[in-house]
Amino acid sequence: MPPKPAHKRVPLYGFLSAVKGNLEALTIGLKYFLNPNRSTLHYPREYIKLRPGYRGYIVLNKAKCIMCDSCARICPAAAMKMVRFQAPDPKRPGKMKLYKYPVINYQRCIFCGFCVDVCPTEALRHVPAHDVVYLNLAEMELDLDRFQVEPKSPAEVEGGIPVKYIFDPDRGLVKVRATEGGGGSGG
Amino acid sequence: MGWISVIGEWFFWPPFFQLVIAPGLVAALVIVIFILWFERKTAARVQMRVGPYNVSPRLGGALQLIADLVRYSFQEFIIPFTVDKAAYVAAPLLMLIATVLPAAVMPMSPVLPYSYSWPNIMEYNLLLALALLTISPIFTVAAGWASNNKFSLIGAARESFMITAYELIFIIAVLATAAPVHSYDIVRIVEAQRTWRVMALLNPPAFLAALIAVLMSTSGFPFEIPESEHEVVAGPFTEYSGLMYGVEMGAAYIKRYIMSVLMALVFFSGWKPLDPTPGAGVWSGYVAPLVVVLIKATIIMAVISFLRAVYGRYRLDQALHLAWRLALPLALIGYAIGLLYGYLGVL
C-alpha cells in the first residue's frame, strides 16, 4: 500500500514580516516604475556594435592566400571547401596554372574560427557582423567573388543607432549608445 | 434655446445617461482602454521591457489597444459543436450587461440636471449597487459550464470558490462606510466626508479589505486565479474567440472600473473638491462632479494595474486563506470602526 500523501499546510508567516515583504516588493516596483532600466534592443533602429575581434562572418583576402588548403582541412563542419580552376599563369606567359581557393557554405559553418586561426598568412579574417540575411539556402553557399566581399549588418546599412550593453554597479546591465571610436560589446 | 434644451434634457435623462454614457458604457470603454494600455506599459517599465510601441511610436503605442479591438471584431467567432449553444452565446453578453448595471444607480452628483430626481431619490442606492454587482460572476461560471471543456470547468470552479470569498468581504467593507452616516445613500456618505476626512484615511482596514476584494473579484494580480494562463489556458474563456473573448475580458475590466467608481465615491469622497449646489447648471452641477469621480476612479484603477507588475500569482488555497483569515477579519474590524464612528457621531 503506497504511503498516504502528507497534507501540506500553508505556512503561516508572521503578519509583520508579510507586511514588510509586500512593502519591499512595492518599493522595488515603484523604483523601477519611476526610473526604468529598459534593456530591450529595438533591432532595426538600434544594433549592438560588436568589438573588432568578434567571431562573425569570414572574409577571404585572395591576394594573401597561398592555397595551402589548411582551412578546408581543419574545418570541423566541412563548411570550407577549396574550388579549383585553370587560369593563365602570370609568371609563365602562355601557360595555364591550377589555382585553388577556399569558399564557404554558411549552411554548415559553426563560426568556430578554426580556419582563421590556422591560416598562415592571415588571408581569412572575421568581420564584426552576425545578422546578414539570405533569401534562400542556395545563397548561403558563397562563391569565390562573394567570399571576398565584406558583409554588412543590415541595421548598420540602414542607419541604425549603434548601442552597447555595459555593466553598471548600481543599475545592472545598462544599454548605452556606442561611440565611434570606442570598442563595442558582444562575443 | 428651445430644441437644444429639449435634446439636452433627453440626453441627460439619468436612466439613459448614467447607463450608456457616463459612468456607464462609453466612459467605461474609454477608461478601460486607457487602463489596459497603462497596465501593459507599467508592467513593461517595471520589468525592463518597452511594452506596446510599434503601433504609433510617438504616442507610446497607445493605439495598440484600438488595433487589438479592431482585430478582435473581425476575427471569426467559433461556436464549437460540443457546447451548450444558448448559454455559450448568452453568457458573455449578460455578463457585460450585468457588469454595467450598477452604474445606473450610483449618483455622480448631489444635483441632477433638469430637475430630474433619479437615482438620487433612492435612499438605498448603495445597497442596490452592491446587489447589482453580485450578478455578473454567475455568468462567468455559466460560461465555463457551457463551454464543456476541462479547462473551462476548472476555471469556473475556481471562480465560484473566489465568489464565496470576496463577495462578503466587499459588501461588509463598503457597508462600513454607511454605518457612520446612518444612511445607505451614497450622496449622504459623500457629503459627510470633508477635505481630509475621507473614509479611506478614517477607516483604513475597511479600505484595504475592499481593495483586496476588488482585486479578487476582477482577477487582478495577485489573484488572477480563474483565468491563470499557465495552468488553465484562459479559464472559463478558453473556448471563446473573436469579439466574444474581447467582451468577456472587457467585462472583467469594466467590473473593476465600476467597483473603482464605487470606491472613489464611498472611500475617497466622490466629487468632493467640488461642492455643487442645487441651483447649479448642467455643466458645473452635474458634468464636472462626474469628471472628478471618474478621475479618482481612474487613479484607483491605475494603482490596481500597478500591482500586476509587482506580484506573482497565489495558488487557490493561498488566496482563499488570505481572504478568510486576513481580509474578512479586516473587513469586520473596519465595520466595527464604522459602527464606533456612527455611535460617537464623528462624521
3D shape of chain B = globular
Q: Report mean pLDDT of chain B, rounded to a whole number.
A: 87
SSE run of chain B: HHHHHHHHHHHHHH
What is the helix fraction of residues of chain A, given as a range? 10-25%
Element layout with pairings:
The complex is a heterodimer of chains A (187) and B (347).
Chain A: H1 15-34, E1 46-48, E2 57-60, H2 70-74, E3 80-88, E4 96-104, H3 114-118, E5 124-127, H4 144-147, H5 154-157, E6 161-168, E7 172-177
Parallel strand pairs in A: 1-6
Antiparallel strand pairs in A: 2-5, 3-4, 6-7
Chain B: H1 2-11, H2 14-21, H3 25-46, H4 64-74, H5 85-100, H6 125-133, H7 136-147, H8 150-175, H9 186-192, H10 199-202, H11 204-217, H12 242-266, H13 282-310, H14 316-344
Helix pairs in contact in B: 3-12, 3-13, 4-12, 5-7, 5-12, 7-8, 8-11, 8-14, 11-12, 11-14, 12-13
Description of the structure:
In chain A, 20% of the residues lie in helices and 23% in strands. With 187 residues, chain A is an alpha+beta fold. Chain A has a domain at 57-149: Alpha-Beta Plaits (2-Layer Sandwich). The longest helix of chain A has 20 residues, at 15-34. The mean pLDDT of chain A is 85. Chain B has 14 helices and no strands. In chain B, α4 crosses α12 and α8 packs parallel to α14.
